[in-house]
């Protein structure tokens, strides 16, 4: 199925009016819910062409029109156990991944053991770090296993529970995405409060991307009042939150970089950036110099490569860089050289600090309390790009790597 369109929704996250001021509870500080709450309405739908689909020789048809999108309960397998669909990694990519790296299969859902829950996943996340996990190399997180279902952030509804405190009907977040049904230990799930935000928000603005932006700009490269702040991949999940947070933290000028004129326009018109660069339109360094002639104080680097080179050139003495990601290098097939102008870090006495959000999970309650307030008062805008159905999850992932998303790229698996 080439040149097909997949259905995308774009919408601003709506927060329930019954927002509560804070969030208590263990781990992430999110409060258990007695029952599953329905999501608020989303915005307009649109079709966006993506040229990559899961491969046809997978064990199930990838034509969504011929598939029940999400069974209400797991269907029975040959031996009577429940069956769900999942996406497996079947080949490691060299360079840019493609549909041939994935396979959609039906798989028996394991029986529940004590202290486990069965979750019907309703949303799953596709994230840039997953590209690294497709390679078989040592990193901060283990590689995906060949022939096994991929993993990643997901949210869903508990449909069976052997865990005190996680009732059937609760909404939970966890890390067994890329499948319709997940069996996991209760300790590996977090009950989320869907009365303060739609459940999918916990994969985006109230999840890892939001916390990443918050930690990067309050701890890794703290923004000070009056700063000029530059954010790359600014129209994405981390970037859209980061630009708005920079302003809240007192930045005088916030500049974003994104691919294409429409994204650049939206950074200014919809996400409150003062200026935007379309990095595909020409040199990042010269465009940054044009919009920040006096230089910059803080750079949140999601991209690496020419963006980091440009930022090093533009930073003031004493400038700060949060090294959050380097997506321009993730498909590289040979070692990527560092920025040719790195020695500027010496002469300008710059601070370049790497960060991993997983080191900062304790700050979730603090961040969520703030972010839910900002969402409720309309001063934090959150956007998602939604792809429908597990069979489209690889296309969503590949599309995200190429910039098909504005805000957080999500896959909706069911209601
Ligand atoms: N350190 C951490 O703990 C942590 C946590 C979360 C995310 N991250 C990192 O943060 C970055 C953003 O993650 P995200 O989840 O928010 O993803 P995202 O920005 O929502 O999506 C990825 C975006 O990368 C951009 N992109 C792809 N290739 C590019 C290139 N060659 N040059 C410039 N931009 C390119 C695309 O946007 P355009 O259309 O603008 O090209 C695409 O939409 C990634 O590097 C990710 O690895 C790090």
UniProtKB/TrEMBL annotation:
Gene3D superfamilies recorded: Medium-chain alcohol dehydrogenases, catalytic domain, NAD(P)-binding Rossmann-like Domain
Keyword field contains Oxidoreductase: yes
Sequence ranges of Basic and acidic residues compositional bias: 48-58
Biased composition (Polar residues): 59-70
Pfam families: ADH_N_2, ADH_zinc_N
Matches recorded under SUPFAM superfamilies: GroES-like, NAD(P)-binding Rossmann-fold domains
EC number: 1.-.-.-
Broad enzyme group: oxidoreductase
Keyword Ligase belongs to the record: no
Positions of the UniProt region annotated as Disordered: 24-84
SMART domains: PKS_ER
Any GO molecular function: oxidoreductase activity
InterPro entries (UniProt xref): ADH-like_C, ADH_N_2, ER, GroES-like_sf, MDR_fam, NAD(P)-bd_dom_sf
Enoyl reductase (ER) domain location: 98-411
Keyword annotations of the record: Oxidoreductase
Name listed for the protein in its UniProt record: NADP-dependent oxidoreductase
